[in-house]
Write a structure and sequence with these properties.
Strand content: 15-25%
Strand order of the largest sheet: 3-2-1-4-5-10-9-6-7-8
Low-confidence stretches: 109-118, 245-255
Radius of gyration: 19 Å
Largest sheet: 10 strands, mixed
Structural class: alpha/beta
Helix content: 25-40%
Length: 266
């Protein structure tokens, strides 16, 4: 497995990286460090500093790779990469071109280069990535149980079967059971299609169904109450998922949660 960890060397991106290292050790995965940068192209003279920036960033990346190497127990040495361009686009492009299985990144942070991990960048990656993304909040609830994983589902089937393959492999390697959460829009009537989850039934634990009309708030309350270690959601263009990532509250939503959020593309 290959895990991509974008970094801008900020405190929060390093916090997310430490989380990624723990996951990589459990999943026997290789970590790829990536930093994006941009140089204004309107003035030709500025292009001369392109190489200087590349060399400086690469030195910092190599130093970071050496620093985290002793924490990695898989035997896979971390690799370092630098790309020029818009941070969100570069992260998604790199993941597509380098056989990345999972992206782990912070939801905010300000570094000395391109503010790669601002909430707006995490939002763009989550919206466009073709591989699962784990968004790491600025502070994970210390009372949370990493073995408690919750998959929040709407009434639709998961269309991309690759998600099942990934979830099954992830759960088995991380030694976790995935509970299911679903909110019914009509009281006393369930519209959850458990039949579509047949291929991953061996990793499913409890199934929780509640009635309500505010999924985002209900999921947050549930994860807090049950000390959930990770929340998994499926990216949908026209469902309760879009409420979390479609408006100006995106950064606030991402920054306020204390539960790591895995987003599956669908």
């Amino acid at each position: 497995m290959n895990i991509l960890c974008p970094t801008d060397f900020s405190e929060h991106s390093l916090y997310a990286l430490n989380y990624a290292i723990e996951k990589a050790n459990r999943l026997d995965a290789k970590i790829h460090l990536l930093t994006a940068y941009s140089v204004p192209r309107s003035t030709g003279a500025l292009r001369s500093i392109d190489k200087i920036i590349q060399d400086s960033v690469m030195d910092e990346l190599n130093e970071l790779a050496q620093k985290i190497a002793p924490k990695i127990t898989t035997g896979h040495e971390p690799s370092v990469h630098i790309m020029e361009g818009n941070s969100g686009r570069v992260i998604c492009q790199f993941a597509s071109e380098h056989d990345i299985d999972l992206i782990i990144m912070g939801t905010q942070g300000k570094g000395n280069l391109s503010n790669i991990l601002l909430g707006s960048v995490a939002k763009k990656v989550v919206e466009h990535s073709r591989v699962p993304v784990i968004a790491i909040p600025s502070q994970i609830n210390k009372d949370s149980n990493p073995e408690k994983v919750l998959l929040a589902l709407d009434e639709k089937e998961i269309m991309h079967k690759e998600n099942f393959t990934f979830l099954k492999s992830y759960a088995k390697k991380d030694a976790v059971v995935v509970d299911i959460f679903h909110m019914n829009q009509i009281q006393g009537k369930s519209d959850l299609n458990l039949g579509s989850l047949e291929s991953i039934k061996d990793i499913i634990g409890e199934v929780y169904e509640e009635f309500g009309t505010e999924p985002v708030q209900s999921i947050a309350a549930f994860t807090n109450k049950h000390k959930t270690g990770m929340l998994i959601m499926v990216r949908r263009p026209h469902s309760f998922w879009s409420r979390l990532f479609s408006d100006s509250n995106t950064v606030e939503e991402l920054a306020s949660t204390k539960t790591p959020l895995m987003v599956l593309p669908d």
